[in-house]
TrEMBL record:
<keyword id="KW-0720">Serine protease</keyword>
<comment type="similarity">
    <text>Belongs to the peptidase S1B family.</text>
</comment>
<keyword id="KW-0378">Hydrolase</keyword>
<dbReference type="GO" id="GO:0006508">
    <property type="term" value="P:proteolysis"/>
</dbReference>
<dbReference type="InterPro" id="IPR009003">
    <property type="entry name" value="Peptidase_S1_PA"/>
</dbReference>
<dbReference type="Pfam" id="PF13365">
    <property type="entry name" value="Trypsin_2"/>
</dbReference>
<keyword id="KW-0645">Protease</keyword>
<dbReference type="InterPro" id="IPR043504">
    <property type="entry name" value="Peptidase_S1_PA_chymotrypsin"/>
</dbReference>
<dbReference type="InterPro" id="IPR050966">
    <property type="entry name" value="Glutamyl_endopeptidase"/>
</dbReference>
<dbReference type="InterPro" id="IPR008256">
    <property type="entry name" value="Peptidase_S1B"/>
</dbReference>
<dbReference type="GO" id="GO:0008236">
    <property type="term" value="F:serine-type peptidase activity"/>
</dbReference>
<keyword id="KW-0732">Signal</keyword>
<protein>
    <recommendedName>
        <fullName>Serine protease</fullName>
        <ecNumber>3.4.21.-</ecNumber>
    </recommendedName>
</protein>
Length: 320
């Protein structure tokens, strides 16, 4: 009998394996050791109460007039380096300008980072577990958004934004499937960075569309294992891993079960909240939100990655 691919196994089998210690389910935030600059604690709002936030967004991408657009996340004269599917995102042009680092501080003063994307003038998309500790259920003390970080540098220090309010999908007190489906957060920041850097649109697509268009998506995230400055061609990326985003083209959504998406984009800690993007009508749209990895405990090998469906944004903005 031919063995089913891992992503075609039942979700109930996955969670049974987690309990048995055969597989590990890892959300993909990363820990950092830099000093916190944010001093303002954000206001946290549950999804049913989100109307009080009065968010503005219509799902359409926006490119400011003062910024160029490029399909490539690197200089025109730069090619793919080595065998890794991922390459450094080192472009200041749109749409790469919309993606940045989410940096937070927990209640016990630990620092971590994830990935976030501008989806409005002052609205950033990421995961719930990037703003709430999934084990203790405690809310982050402070959260910042740093746009378009390349080699540890933002285009302007004045553009480091504090998160004022957060609407979150889960506080991780539900069951595994519910937590996975709702692992999203929408953050209101204190600066209208979308006017300067632009923002991405979003579009909810059926699984049939994903399966029909394999290897057509791209993914960006501030993975904690990337880049390797010792690798030939990466020597100039000296700020450290997780300080330059990785870009991968040609990955796919390979399955959906119980409203959970499975994808094969390359990920690591720090890439949580990273957008899985499709080019639709030559414009960039977020079609899924990366959030977790399933590993074989025995080999520590990554088997498949999970993502959150993006249709929650339609529901969220319809009540604002």
């Amino acid at each position: 009998m031919t063995k089913k691919p891992i992503y075609k196994q039942s979700l109930s089998i996955f969670f049974a394996c987690f309990l048995a210690g055969i597989l590990s389910f890892t959300t993909l935030g990363g820990w950092v050791s830099v000093q916190a600059q944010a001093t303002q604690a954000p206001e946290f709002i549950k999804f049913p109460e989100a109307s009080k936030l009065q968010l503005s967004g219509n799902g359409k991408p926006f490119k400011p007039a003062g910024i160029n657009q490029s399909e490539k996340p690197y200089d025109e004269d730069r090619g793919t380096i080595g065998w890794d599917d991922r390459i450094p995102m080192i472009s200041r042009e749109y749409p790469w300008s919309t993606i940045g680092r989410v940096q937070g501080t927990t209640n016990d003063e630990k620092r971590y980072h994830c990935t976030g994307t501008l989806i409005g003038e002052s609205v950033v998309l990421t995961n719930s577990h990037c703003v709430i500790d999934e084990k203790t259920h405690q809310l982050s003390r402070t959260i910042e958004f740093l746009p378009n970080v390349i080699n540890g540098v933002v285009p302007s220090r004045r553009d480091i934004a504090l998160v004022k309010r957060v609407v979150y999908g889960t506080d991780f007190t539900g069951n595994e499937v519910t937590n996975q489906i709702n692992d999203w957060a929408v953050m209101e920041i204190n600066k209208p960075l979308g006017r300067k850097y632009g923002y991405l649109g979003w579009q909810s697509l059926p699984i049939a569309s994903f399966l029909k268009n394999q290897k057509q998506l791209f993914f960006v995230g501030y993975s904690g294992d990337f880049p390797n400055p010792n690798k030939k061609g990466y020597e100039f990326l000296s700020a450290g891993q997780g300080q330059t985003a990785s870009y991968q083209f040609g990955c796919s959504i390979v399955n959906e079960q119980q409203n959970v998406l499975f994808h094969d984009c390359d990920t690591a800690g720090g890439s949580s909240g990273g957008p899985i993007i499709a080019s639709i009508g030559s414009q960039p749209y977020i079609v899924a939100l990366n959030n977790a990895e399933i590993k074989d405990v025995g080999t520590n090998k990554g088997l498949i990655n999970l993502a959150v469906k993006i249709d929650f944004l339609d529901r969220l903005f319809s009540i604002n």
